[in-house]
Structure to design on (278 residues):
């Protein structure tokens, strides 16, 4: 009789575990939030595919667009509007690095960008620099390769703010490489201060592709929950500014756009993912 009680308890625990809900089409990994079980805000895991660190961003609500008191905003950053991100997600702690991209380029049918390395990284030697010279399509393919995707514009800004309502998540020179301190080139990732979520280089260094197409009027009627971005157009949105941009263009609400096929050393990316297994 003494042996039956522990066995019964184990059986009931198994049944209770099996009864937890599972999102259709998504494997229920231990890193997926469910019934209060899952990653904690700011938790870091290494993705085994590219070797980079990814940070868990919890669901939440924030004001997207022109920050309070920011008099440098353009019209396409307005109106400020409340957005709710209903599902947590993992996002790269840093932009994708040259070293990580080399892993991707070594997979069948892939190579380093045809435009060649920038002048400040001959032969792609410095692997801790952020990867540039990638098109939007290259970035999408990389993110799929690691089991993720590009973040939406709303996810990117929510993550970039890191809980702050300011135009920048700290003094610009302490958090970003931009025109006044970069010497017109990128720098190794994670040398500047992180934001409140523990993310580095959300501003400056390289600009970052997001998933959305560009529509400068989208804020006028975008949904308040998980905005997916507008229908296709000519350009994709780029966020975060870059090493050559002036201070006005290095703010969390600033929006840029670029042709998705273009390769330029100033534009890189970071990936988002639903699950990152250890």
């Amino acid at each position: 009789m003494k042996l039956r009680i522990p066995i019964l308890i184990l059986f009931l625990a198994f049944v209770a575990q099996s009864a937890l809900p599972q999102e259709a089409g998504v494997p229920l990994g231990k890193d997926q939030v469910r019934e209060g079980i899952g990653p904690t805000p700011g938790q870091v895991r290494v993705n085994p595919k590219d070797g980079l660190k990814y940070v868990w961003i919890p669901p939440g609500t924030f004001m997207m667009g022109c920050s309070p008191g920011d008099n440098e905003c353009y019209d396409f950053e307005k109106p400020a509007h409340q957005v709710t991100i209903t599902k947590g997600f993992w996002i790269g702690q840093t932009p994708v690095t040259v070293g990580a991209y080399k892993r991707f380029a070594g997979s069948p049918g892939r190579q380093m960008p045809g435009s060649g390395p920038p002048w400040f990284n001959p032969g792609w030697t410095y692997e801790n620099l952020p990867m540039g010279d990638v098109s939007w399509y290259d970035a999408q393919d990389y993110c799929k390769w690691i089991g993720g995707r590009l973040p939406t514009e709303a996810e990117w800004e929510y993550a970039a703010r890191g809980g702050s309502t300011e135009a920048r998540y700290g003094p610009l020179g302490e958090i970003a490489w931009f025109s006044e301190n970069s010497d017109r080139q990128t720098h190794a990732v994670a040398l500047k201060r992180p934001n409140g979520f523990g993310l580095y280089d959300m501003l400056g260094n390289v600009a970052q592709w997001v998933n959305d197409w560009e529509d400068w009027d989208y804020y006028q009627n975008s949904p308040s929950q998980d905005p997916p971005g507008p229908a296709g157009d000519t350009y994709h949105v780029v966020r975060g500014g870059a090493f050559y941009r002036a201070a006005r263009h290095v703010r969390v609400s600033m929006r840029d756009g670029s042709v998705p096929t273009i390769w330029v050393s100033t534009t890189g990316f970071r990936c988002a993912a639903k699950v990152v297994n250890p």
Remarks:
- The chain has one domain: 34-273.
- Confidence is low (pLDDT under 50) at residues 1-36.
